[in-house]
Design goal:
The complex is a heterodimer of chains A (166) and B (440). Helix content of chain A is 64%, strand content 7%. Chain A has 166 residues and is mainly alpha-helical. Chain B is elongated and about 75 Å long. Classes of the chains: A mainly alpha (166), B alpha/beta (440). Chains A and B meet through helix 2, strand 3, helix 5, helix 6 and helix 7 of A and helix 4, helix 6, helix 7, helix 8 and helix 10 of B. Chain A: Residues 3-67 form the SKP1 component POZ domain.
């Protein structure tokens, strides 16, 4: 079994298990291809990820390892404990998603780039929660969005839809 | 030395670049095609391929998908073209926004690994601002995934918050309800629905389905703006209970949206024959719910029926101005009718129902609640021609005899009057009909 090394954009290396890497679909399919084509290669597989910074990569890998551990627990434990386990997982995920908006951005982009569906779901869920029930101005403030409309567009919308800009 | 293959690479590169640009524009990844190009040129180029060309071509592929590019690198490594994939830095999926196209060239550059110190410094410097700039350019699939979890009101807010979000949502949102607009605390007052709908016309231009149910303060100008913005893409609209919408609003709707197939204008009390005449211009109209349009008369119904021959489901409940003449022309023109509701059309006489029974063989559901002028002649025609009825409402039709109704039930096996099953023959108020038995 080969080791997989994910290299963040500042050169930091992270060795991860194949089981955890399989949650990253991008890495998993790469792995599959390589196993099929060159099985005897024992060099560690280095995957450079130029647009994932070290701390984000660490967080993503933390998620992968933890989810893998939870999965194993789920299959091992009897049906009676499943509900308890689900609660545990949800609590952990809630704790995990306590991040600033900037961190959330890097996390969601990394999840998209590495194609980790479960993390992506979690991130989009967190983003939806941050949008829910807010006015456009509050959403802009929350995500640091600058109104990127041209003055003409803005005037057009202001005229037709006062509600949108309040 | 490799003049011929060099030309080929140049050609293929140009093609790959075009593919990339096209794919970015359309929002589709062209990876399979780009990948094929690499395989095509490599056997001839061999290990002497100009490194720049290799890099640019890989860049074109990696612009589409990281996985494709990594796979290509591993294949190239196997062919002995690259010593190690560690030499390469691949850039991620290029965001599909049109705005970013001009920057895409910078993003698809290959760099040597590891990056020089300056490079990492700029990354750190960018780190603080990149998230803020990045939120604008969130990939549209992520945006849609977020939108899928939010109610329509918040999707509208998202589109108002950022122009690039608006563009991405506009491209992919197909269905929008504005039922929240009247009671959303962010709006404050009932008339705000006009502002919201009018503003939505600037945001959503690819809607197929619009729900304006019970927008009691919706006015024609807002409906017009939305109809013009969405044009022929609009397929279905629910205006039930929009009491202030007039004939002009419906005329504007039908002149822009020619492909409407489902229209609900129940309880739009202002609408008269002119609205129905203009609805006739939507030739693909299949379902219309005009329940409670009191000002509709035979003239409007005839104009609608003559043009919209594909109608399958028509609800004319409590359209008290409709008589058997209007129903006759409807039956003659729209022979594919499956559902017809005439509940409360008190002026309709037997000739109308007889025409329906003779012409519309596919009829599944017939509602005649309170059509007091109907007699056994209607039932006789139904018993003679209709075989697919699965629902019949004759409650309040006091002049029908048990024998006539029994004949209809006998030839339509889907109708039943059993208490234990859900009754599909509704005979409320007709004491004489209690003895009608289910078909054996």
């Amino acid at each position: 079994m080969r080791n997989i090394v994910l290299r963040a954009n500042d050169g930091a290396d992270h060795v991860i298990s194949v089981a955890a890497a399989s949650l990253c679909k991008t890495v998993a399919s790469l792995l599959q291809d390589l196993e099929a084509s060159k099985g005897e290669d024992t060099d560690p597989l280095i995957v450079p990820l130029p647009n994932v910074c070290n701390c984000t990569l660490q967080k993503v890998l933390g998620f992968c390892e933890q989810q893998r551990a939870f999965d194993e627990l789920c299959t091992a434990s009897p049906a009676a404990q499943q509900a308890d386990l689900t609660r545990q997982i949800q609590a952990w995920q809630m704790e995990y998603m306590q991040v600033s908006t900037d961190e959330l951005y890097h996390l969601v982009m990394a999840a998209h780039y590495l194609n980790v569906p479960r993390l992506l779901d979690l991130c989009t869920d967190a983003m939806a929660e941050r949008i829910r029930g807010k006015s456009p101005a509050q959403v802009r403030e929350c995500f640091g969005l600058k109104p990127s409309l041209s003055p003409e567009e803005e005037e057009e919308i202001r005229r037709s839809n006062l509600w949108a800009l309040n | 030395m490799h003049g011929h293959s060099g030309v080929m690479i140049e050609d293929s590169l140009e093609e790959a670049r075009q593919l990339r640009d096209a794919s970015v524009q359309r929002g589709v990844t062209a990876k399979p095609i780009a990948a094929r190009h690499i395989y095509k040129i490599y056997p001839e180029a061999g290990s002497e391929a100009p490194p720049d060309a290799v890099n640019t071509l890989l860049g074109a592929c990696s612009a589409c998908n990281l996985h494709t590019a990594i796979a290509l690198v591993s294949k190239m490594k196997a062919m002995g073209i690259l010593a190690s994939c560690n030499q390469l830095v691949m850039q991620p999926t290029v965001a599909l926004e049109r705005r970013r196209q001009q920057h895409s060239r910078q993003q698809i550059a290959f760099a040597s690994w590891p990056p020089s110190k300056d490079c990492s410094n700029t990354r750190c410097a960018l780190g603080s601002t990149s998230a803020q700039a990045g939120w604008h350019n969130l990939p549209s699939d992520i945006l849609l995934q977020i939108a899928a979890m939010l109610p329509d009101a918040d999707i509208h807010v998202m589109a108002c918050a950022s122009a690039s979000w608006r563009d991405a949502l506009n491209r992919d949102i197909r269905s929008m309800a504005f039922t929240w607009a009247a009671r959303d605390p962010r709006n404050g007052h009932l008339c705000a629905v006009n502002g919201v709908v009018h503003g939505a016309a600037c945001i959503f231009q690819n809607l197929h389905n619009v729900v304006l149910r019970r927008a009691t303060h919706l006015r024609d100008f807002a409906l017009m703006a939305l109809a013009q913005a969405n044009g022929p893409r609009l397929k279905s609209i629910d205006l039930s209970g929009c009491q202030l919408v007039t004939d002009r609003g419906i005329q504007a709707l039908t002149s822009s949206c020619k492909n409407l197939d489902t229209v609900n204008i129940s309880s739009c009390y202002e609408l008269s024959d002119r609205a129905f005449e203009s609805l006739g211009s939507c030739r693909s109209l299949q379902t219309i719910d005009a329940c409670g349009c009191e000002r509709l008369t035979d003239i409007g119904l005839q104009a609608l029926a003559e043009n919209a021959g594909k109608l399958r489901s028509v609800n004319l409940g409590w359209c008290e101005g409709v008589t058997e003449e209007g129903v006759q022309s409807l039956a003659r023109c729209c022979r594919q009718l499956e559902v017809l509701d005439l509940c409360g059309c008190v002026k309709v006489q037997d000739m109308g129902v007889v025409a329906v029974a003779l012409n519309c063989k596919a009829l599944r559901s017939l509602g005649l609640h309170c059509c007091r002028r109907l007699t056994d002649a209607s039932m006789a025609a139904c018993a003679l021609k209709l075989r697919n009825l699965s629902s019949l409402n004759i409650s309040g039709c006091l002049s029908m005899s048990p024998a006539a109704v029994q004949a209809v039930v006998d030839v339509n096996p889907s109708l039943h009057t059993c208490r234990s099953m859900q009754r599909t023959v509704i005979i409320g108020g007709c004491l004489a009909l209690l003895e009608v038995l289910p078909a054996m």
